[in-house]
């Protein structure tokens, strides 16, 4: 689930955007071949977007772990104030 976004750069028809997300992993239920306990995590997806005639298209994608909420302000930046 997205928790915050940052536009890293924007020039012409290219934008670099980071999306900070919370995650939930695991397998449960009667039909699961293997039971994996539910765990939570945090990750940042960094995307390069390019504007085309059909709208924004994904040109590059990277994913890194974290930051966790306790150190998010120092590593990710502050959330926009509405």
Automatic annotation (TrEMBL):
Residues 60-82 are annotated as: Disordered. Keywords: Plasmid. This is SnoaL-like domain-containing protein. The lineage of its organism: Bacteria, Bacillati, Actinomycetota, Actinomycetes, Kitasatosporales.
């Amino acid at each position: 689930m997205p928790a915050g976004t940052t536009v890293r750069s924007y020039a012409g028809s290219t934008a670099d955007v980071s999306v900070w997300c919370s995650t939930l992993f695991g397998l449960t239920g009667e039909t699961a071949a293997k039971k994996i306990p539910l765990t939570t995590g945090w990750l940042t997806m960094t995307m390069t977007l390019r504007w085309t005639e059909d709208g924004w298209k994904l040109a590059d994608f990277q994913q890194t772990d974290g930051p966790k909420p306790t150190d998010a302000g120092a590593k990710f930046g502050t959330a926009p104030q509405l």
